[in-house]
Automatic annotation (TrEMBL):
Signal peptide: none annotated. The keyword RNA-binding does not apply. GO terms for biological process: meiotic cell cycle; regulation of synaptonemal complex assembly. It comes from Saitozyma podzolica. Keywords: Meiosis. It holds the Pfam family SPO22. This is Protein ZIP4 homolog.
Amino acid sequence: MSREPFTLIQATYEQLRPLLNHLPITSSSPPEVKHKLLQLLQHLRAASEDRYSQQSQTEAEDPTTAASLRYTAFRMIEAASEPKLPLTLTLRLLELACATVTSLVEAKETEDTSGLLTRAADLAQRVSAATLAPDSIQAKQRSGVLIKFYVTRVDSIMAEDENARLALSFMKRALELELEGHFSQLDYLALAARCWSIGDKLRKQSQAPGPSFDEGGSAHDDAVEWLSTGMKIIEHMENRFQNPGYGGVMELKLALLRSLARAYLSKSATDPTALAQAETTLKILASLVVDRDPSAEFDIKLLQLRVLKQQDAAEGDIRALLGEIWRCMVWDEESAEEMLAQIHGLGSHPDLVSSSLVCLIHEALKTADGHAPVERILLMILVTARHMMETRAPAAYQMALQALDLVSSQEEFEARYNTHSTAEETVIWDIADKQVRNNRYEQAAQWYELATHPAFAKFGSKNFSQCRRRAALAYINAGDYEAAARLIALCPAGEAATQYLRFLVAINSGSVKAAIEAVHLMIECADVQGKQLILMASVAYEKGAEATLMKVLSIVLEALDGSDIIWETHIERITLIRCLIRLTLLEIEKAEEKETLLGTLVGYFATGEPAAAFATSLTKYSYNTGIRAALEWGSQAAPDLFDCAAQLMIAYEDLTQVDLDPELELQKGSAMFACLCGKLFACRDLEDGPDRSDLLANLATYLPSCRGTLMGVNHAITKQGAVEDMLRALDIYEVEVMCEMGEWDSLLESIKASDNAIESRLATRPGAHSHPSHTLESIADVLASYPKCPTSTTYLVLEMILTSFSLASSGDVIRYARWLRAILLNLLHRGGEEDADRALAYLTKGAEVLRSTGGKAAYPADEAQWLLAQAWNKGLELFSSGKVDSARTWSEVAISISSSLPNGGKQKDQLYAQYQYLLERSSAR
C-alpha cells in the first residue's frame, strides 16, 4: 500500500509539534499562531481520514508514525484539558499517557518518555489520593488504570536501562493493588505473563557470558525473583478464583515453573542451595504434567537429569532416569540435540555415555518419528568413539559397531541427508588414519572396514571399494595377508589400486607368480598411473625380490615406451631409469661376464630425455660408470657411457638454461673427449670393413662437436691446462682419422687450421701452456706412420714445426735440431734443385742457431756433427759436379758450423785447408 498518507501525517506532525508550546490558545494568542494551528489540524485530520480509508486489514501499523501521533494527540488533549480535571477524566488521561509511553517504547523512541512518565506519575498520585467507595465503579477503574501505569513503568525501565530490581519494585506495587479487591483474572494473568517474559529473558541472559553473569550471579537472582513473583501471582489468582474462567492458566503456570527450575539450575553454579530448590520445583512441575503433555514431561525429565548430574548422583540413578526419558522421548531435531548434549555431559560415567548413545539410536529407530535425527545421533556416536580411542579403544569400536548394526537391521529406516553420510565416513577415516600414524595397523584396518558396513548403504555411500582397499593396506602393514586378500577379492579387479594391493600381498607372501600377474593386470587397468608402477618396483627392490623386481621393471619400461598409458611428467620415467641403472650396476658388480649388462646399461642411459631435476645424478652415474668400465673392467661400452653422460649434460643445459654450474661445460667436454678416445682406440683394433668405415665417419663428425664444447669452456676455469691438452689431442686425432680415411686433399688445410687455432688460443687463453710446435711434432709423427701420405704434406708440416720454435729454451733448441735433421733428410732425399736451395737455407739457419748463445749451450753435439757432415758432403758432391758456386756456399756453411762446435778450431782449419785445395783444383780446370 502507498505510504503517502503516512508521509503527509509525519510532515504535518513535524510542523505541528513546535506550536504545542503556545497551548492553551487564548484571546491573547497571536492570530497567525491560531491560523497556523487550525490549518495544520485540518491537514492532519484529512491525512488521517485518507490513511484509514486506505488501510488494509492485514497491514501492520507503522510504529514510529503511530507513536508520534499518539504522543501529539496526548499533548493536544493535555493542553486542551483543564488544570483540575474530574477523576474520570484524570483516569482517562493517565490511561492515555500509559498507552503513549508503551507506543514510544515499542517504537524505540524513548527520548520523550521521561516527560510523559513524570506527567503520568503526577496523575497517578492524584488518582491514588482520591477517596472512593471501595465497591464503586471508579474504584475498579482506578485499580485497572494504576496496574497499567505500574506495568508501563516496568516496560520503560526494562527498555531503557534494564534495571530489573527497580522494575520489580513497580511490579510489586502493582501487586499491592490486589488488596483493594478489584483484581480480575485478566489482571492476574497479565501480571504473571509479564513476570514470566522478563524473568525468562533474564534467565537466558544469565546463561550467556558477560558482565551480568560475572557480577556475583545477580542476573540469576533477578531471574529467580521475577519468576517467583509470577508464581505468587498465579497462586493468588488460584486462591481467589477456585475455577478460573480463562484458558492458558495451566500453560502459563507450567512455563513459569519450567523457567524457574532452569533459573535455579543456573544459579546453582554459584549457590549450591539452589539445586534443592530446582529439584523441588521440578517435583511440583512433574505432578502437574502427568498424563498431560509428553513434550512437557520430556522437558522435565531433561531438567531432572541436569539436577542429577550436578548432584554427582550414582550411575544407577542416572541410568534409571534415562530409561524414563526414553519412554517419553519427543523425536524432533531440537529434542534429539538436547538429549545428545545431556548425554555428552555425562563424561564422569564413560560407560554410561556409550551405552546411552546406543540406547538413544535404538529408541529412535523404533518409531518413524525418530528416524529424522538418526543420522545426527550416529554422527555423535562416531565422534564420541573418536574421543574414546586413546583410553578405551575396544569399547569405542564396539559402540560404533552396535550402532551401525542397529541402523542396518531396521528395514524401514531410510536416510534423509547424504551430507551426514559423508561426515560419518570422514570421522571413521580420521579415526583409522590416526591409528595408522600410531602404527596400530590392526585397529586401523578394523575402522576402515567398518566404513563398509551395510548401514552406510542406506546413506548412499559409494566409497566401499576405497575403504576396503585402505583396510587391506592396513592388514598388509600388520602382516595379516590372509585378511588383506579377503578384502581385495571384494574390490573391482579393473582398478589399478586393487592390483597394486594384490602385488603387495603377493610379494610379501613370497609369491613371484602372483606378483608378476598383478603387474600385468595393472597395465590393463584404465586408471593406471606411472607412480603406481614405480612404487611396485621400489617395493620389490626393498624386499630384495630380485627376480620379481627385474620382471616388474621390464614390464614398466615396456609400458613407458610402447603403451597408451599417459604419464603425467618425466619424473616417473626418470625414476624408473635410475632404478634400472642402480640395479644393473649391482648386477654388473656380481657378474663375471659384464659386457651384456654394460650394453643394457648404456641403453638405459640413452632412454628418453631426462627431467632437469635428475639429469645431474644420471650424468654422474654414467660418467663414473664409464671411468670404471675403462679402468677396472676394460669394457668396450666405456665410450658409449661417456657419450651418454655428455648427452645428458646437453639435455640438462637445454632444460635449465639459467644458473648453470660454471664447470658443466668442462665436464661435458671431458665426457665427449673420453668417448672419442675410446671409440678411436677401438677403431684401431678393427679390421678394414664397413664397421670400421662407419666408425671413422662417426668420429669425423663427432670431432668438431667435441672441439667446440672444449673451446666453450670458461677461460677462468682453473683446469685450463687440461682443456688445452685435450684440444691438442683432438688436433692430433683429427689428423689420424683423416689419414685413416685417406682424406689427403683436405688434410693439409686441416693441419693449418689447427695451427692457427693453437696460435689463437695462446693469445686468448692465459692457461694454455702447449706450444704449436708440440702439436705439429705429434702430427708429424702420425704422418710418418702413413706411407701413403704425400711428401709435400709431410714437408710442409716439418716446415711449420721449424718456424714455430722460439728457441728461447734449451728444450726448443734440442727439438729444433731433431726436426731440422728430419726436414733436411726429406729435402735432400727428394734431390731437386729447388729442394737443395731450401735445404741450404735450413742449414744456414741451423748454423745461426749454433752460433747463438743458446745454441752453443744446448745444440746436441751429434746433431751438430750431422749438420756439418751433410753440408760438407753436399759441397764435395757439388765440387765433383763442377758446380763451384753452389759448392762454395755449402762448404762455407760447413766451415761456419765447424767453428761453432766445441773444440772445433782444429776441424775448422782442416776443412778450410781442404776447401782451399778444392777451390784451387776447380780453378785449374
